[in-house]
Amino acid sequence: MDVDTLKGIPLFQHLPHRDLDMIARWTDEVHVSEGRHIVDEGEFGYEFFAILEGEADVRHGEEAIARLRPGDFFGEMALVQGDRRTASVVAATPMRLAVMFARDFRSMAADMPEVADRIQEAIRERSP
Length: 128
Fold this sequence. Notes:
The chain is of the alpha+beta class and 128 residues long.
């Protein structure tokens, strides 16, 4: 993943180049087709995702509860809380995603308190 791509993600856009370079080494880019289940409710989470292109629906059971767009991220709750996924995320369009696996996500959160604080804030906003 390149640094310029990461700058387009609001979670990372204010970080210095040095931090973005580190995140870029921890992050891969994946492409998914429309209709693909990216994460499934009830499963353990091993990845964190940020949307670069496309849109996805967040589903709780059969109910669509939110639409995610470029710049949004998901998967952080299961990683931070060590619990199962609280919702499913299904690609509504073809998508390009940045993905970071659990070990790298934990390193990022530990080494970059500013990012960790933003992630914790997002978790508080999304929790019932």
